[in-house]
Amino acid sequence: EVGQTVASCLTGFGAYSEYICAPESEMTPVPPGLDPAEAVCLVANYVVAYQVLHRAAQVAPGERVLIHGAAGGIGTALLQLGQLAELEMYGTASTAKQELVANLGATPIDYKKEDFVERILSLTGDGVDVVCDSIGGSYVRRSYKTLRPGGRLVVFGGVAFAAEGILNMLWGNLILRPILNLIPDRRAALTYVRGDSKKNSSPEWVREDLSKLFDLLAQKKIEPILTRMPLAEAARAHELIGNASVKGKIVLMCNTA
Predict the structure, then answer these.
(1) Residues of the domain holding 13
(2) What is the tens place of the pLDDT at every residue in 116-168?
(3) pLDDT digit string, tens, across residues 61-100
(4) Any stretches that span the bilayer, and where are they (predicted)?
(5) What contacts 199, CB < 8 A, 6 or more positions away?
(6) Contact at 8 Å (CB) between 9 and 206?
(7) Are 5 and 29 contacting, i.e. CB atoms less than 8 angstroms apart?
(8) CATH number, residue 221
(9) pTM flag (> 0.85)
(10) 257 falls within a domain
């Protein structure tokens, strides 16, 4: 209704603006009293994290989970939701972000200084049950090696595009992943379509999951890690993201000096 605070995942461009036009059917009401900056973190990052864990991997309490990019926007969401799901978590991150990962309940692994495959096998003995891989590319095969029998690799991102190029990313994400499923070793490699693009085929999933997440935020069971910046500094925000110098999420604020 008019004047109500709502949230939506856009499938295209235009979110860096003060006003947008979107179908009412794609709106999810935001409960009164929530911080808008914290609420907007849930719309993409936490919806993706929730669906990776609960719809794609279908995690169970006590399972071991490896999370790549654990200090980023989706990574920190995965860690917080993983704590609520009572998971045993391991997270890759750079040295400067190790403390954050540890504070969110995971064992940090410095991917720049150690081989995460060897480290996981050393820590666990036989590997993990789930890998949440937002990197893709060459990480797909290496992530798969960390799985124990019955484990699930969920590939849901393409960060490797910037470092490895489009061909390597496509090889890992689209070609190698289905080939791995032909290996009769009781391990599975899945592709998760991000929540914002999944919306058109399953809009009820996004609204249902986002509503659950808003309830968790209202109950203070989750707390988005974020940095607020003026909308006018959008270019600078992208520089920070590109340099991997951001912990959690950057939120662009309208009507700020």
Answers:
(1) 6-42+199-250
(2) 999 999 999 999 999 999 988 888 899 999 999 999 999 987 676 556 666 66
(3) 999 999 999 999 999 999 999 999 999 999 999 999 999 9
(4) 151-171
(5) 9, 11, 26, 205, 206
(6) yes
(7) yes
(8) 3.90.180.10
(9) yes
(10) no
